[in-house]
Amino acid sequence: DIQLTQSPSSLSASVGDRVTITCRASQSITSSLNWYQQKPGKAPKLLIYAASYLQSGVPSRFSGSRSGTDFTLTITSLLPEDFATYYCQQTYSALAITFGGGTKVEIK
Amino acid sequence: EVQLVESGGGLVQPGGSLRLSCAASGFTFNNYWMHWVRQTPGKGPVWVSRINSDGSSTNYADSVKGRFTISRDNAKNTLYLQMNSLRAEDTAVYYCATTYSSGFDSFDIWGQGTMVTVSS
Predict the structure, then answer these.
(1) Tens digit of pLDDT for each residue in A90-102?
(2) CA-nearest residue of chain B to A29?
(3) What is the pLDDT at residue A13?
(4) Among candidates A71, A69, A84, A68, which has minimal Cα distance to A20?
(5) pLDDT for A81
(6) Mean pLDDT score across all residues of chain B
(7) Are B64 and B49 within 8 A, CB to CB?
(8) Average pLDDT along chain A
């Protein structure tokens, strides 16, 4: 299976900060990488699909990019509602979809 | 409103069986592939299974192959997951999900989840 390694596993940030989360794939997955936000007790919410496409209704402060097998989720100016756990997901291997281990964004 | 609602979770003994349901509404269910994803508290989601729009093709994660069966009833707009020979490690919240308006197999619609606990 394709492994996705997220870093950091957690971070502390303040409202207004720029936050960057990285997801590294164990092999080439082209741009088949999605990002989700999850809050406690809720299902994951799709933010970015195909590495850089903003899902409808998601604020433009969220963006995604790709460099080879490294993928980045950026939040340009953190708002209180952005404190959550973020997961990447690869769908390149459609018969073995995998998720990253998550990055918890906490309030500093 | 596009919605998925899971049901059927609960407490079951190791070796037991359980059938989960996922009721779809607000969209043409029989046009969409459907997935089951599970998540243990504090851990990342894990993909479990998928089924194509007419139910003729299914796929499973290795961890559940031979024990779980995904199916659907398009007349009832409902997805199912039959879980047999349950193990403690199957304990998780189970979500159904689909790619409704996004692309590249991303899951833009999720249910609220149903908890399955396997314990004696």
Answers:
(1) 999 988 999 999 9
(2) B104
(3) 96
(4) A71
(5) 96
(6) 96
(7) yes
(8) 96
Picking from A52, A48, A9, the residue whose alpha carbon sits closest to that of residue A30 is A52
Tokens of B120: 């004696």
Interface of B with A (CB under 8 A): 35, 43-47, 59, 61, 95, 97, 101-108, 110-113
Nearest to B102 among A31, A46, A102 (CB): A46
Residues of B in contact with A30 (CB under 8 A): none
Whether residue B45 and residue A99 make contact (CB cut-off 8 A), yes or no, is yes
Q: Which residue do the tokens 């189970």 mark?
A: B94
Beta-carbon separation of B46 and A96 below 8 A:
no
Residues of A in contact with B95 (CB under 8 A): 43
Helix, strand, coil percentages, rounded to 5, for chain B: 5, 50, 50
- The rounded distance, in Å, linking the Cα atoms of A14 and A17 is 6
Span A29-77, pLDDT tens digits: 999 999 999 999 999 999 999 999 999 999 999 999 999 999 999 999 9
Question: What pLDDT band is residue B102 in, cutting at 50, 70 and 90?
Answer: confident
Does the distance separating the beta carbons of A94 and B106 come in below 8 Å? no
AA identity, residue B3? Q
Distance from CA of B114 to the nearest CA of A (A): 11
Question: Is B103 in contact with A50 (CB distance < 8 Å)?
Answer: yes
